[in-house]
């Protein structure tokens, strides 16, 4: 496996529309493994193929927490539906068949490191997709997993979470990045002292990037 380079805004590739996957060969499995490694090493909970420069409709997600030995586990705050889904989840050519209700969450993105904003999403979704072998899968999920899938599916159409913000807020972030770039990466691991911000789960900022 190999860690891939994650593209960051304003790289124009992130605005490309990803194409459906038509062939499920061994290269796809290898690429999926590399995506998972890249996501885990970057401490993200989701990653879309376009974020590593490949415009295909493929995303990987893992919202489970990690214990001291690095093992992933399902935690109490996960909803019943989330717990029923086997993770990591690999979704190819995903579609949201139906969305229910609304929820908000402070989202981050590996392609916009160190920025976090509240975004509104469906609370629950019916999803249809293919797995890495080309088999069709269908499921219903809510909670953080549903939010993360919607965030990743946005990437497949060239949309970033900042596009969901007000024009003013979105422009402020875009201008800040274009003018000063991203904050120093060396400081990002100390970035857990955000106890004052509204968050629906007690998770550090580092664990909710996708
Ligand atoms: Zn993202």
Question: How do the helices and strands line up, and which of them pair or pack?
Answer:
Blueprint: H1 26-41, E1 46-48, E2 58-61, E3 65-66, E4 72-73, H2 80-83, E5 89-107, E6 117-130, E7 136-142, H3 143-156, H4 167-180
Antiparallel strand pairs: 1-2, 2-5, 3-4, 5-6, 6-7
The structure holds zinc ion.
Structure explained in plain terms:
The chain has 210 residues and is an alpha+beta fold. The protein has one domain: Peptide Deformylase (Alpha-Beta Complex). It contains 4 helices and 7 strands. It has a 5-stranded antiparallel beta sheet with strand order 1-2-5-6-7. It is globular, with a radius of gyration of 16 Å. About 7% of the residues have low confidence. Bound molecules: zinc ion. Zinc ion binds next to helix 3.
Features:
210 residues; alpha+beta; Peptide Deformylase; two-stranded antiparallel sheet; 23% helix; binds zinc ion
Give a short synopsis of this structure.
The chain is an alpha+beta fold and 210 residues long.
Secondary-structure element series: HEEEEHEEEHH
CATH class: Alpha Beta
Are any ligands bound, and if so which? zinc ion
| Number of E-state strands | 7
Radius of gyration: 16 Å
- Say what the CATH topology is: Peptide Deformylase
Strand proportion: 15-25%
Most strands sheet: 5 strands, antiparallel
Number of helices: 4
Distance between the termini: 20 Å
- Derived from helix and strand composition plus strand pairing, the structural class reads alpha+beta
Which percent bin holds the helix content?
Answer: 10-25%
